Amino acid sequence: MPVNGSRQGATLFRYFPTKEDLILHRIADHQGEAARVVRDRQPEISPLTALHRHFRSGLDSRDPVTGLNDHPVVMAFHRLVFTTPSLAARVTQYMLDNEESLAEVLRGDITARLQAAQVIAVQRVLARTNWQRLVAGQTADEVYPEAVADADRAFALLQTGFRDATDADS
């Protein structure tokens, strides 16, 4: 706040352009993460395998970005984000930015954009499903086996496509 009409130091919004960015700075740490994972992988590892391993590692470490973290502060943060329209909209923008970054690393053509969209959507659905299970009363340790199975299934679907999934479900 100005003191006697003068500005004392930098304002908070110099570092956080919007109030949404101030609240979501933890998520901003993950900006471009999928693209980094693909860019930094070993050449013999496929992009999809690298992304799958990274998500599984996040589940193992209970990374909040996977939705599998039941610490009360993390749960309160997720509840705030998912129930505040302006925050949810900003998270959507982060996901779209991540999708674009991943597509660029994958080649930037229409196939790469489609692949990136699918990966980011899978990560979003898995994280939200994990969070919903925690909200329903399960602990992260209780949810973990199902979260791993869901992640393995989701990345297998990305690998094999919908045809195999619909055949298996028939």
TrEMBL record:
Species for this entry:
Acrocarpospora corrugata
Q: Gene3D superfamilies under this entry?
A: Tetracycline Repressor, domain 2
Please state what the protein is called: TetR family transcriptional regulator
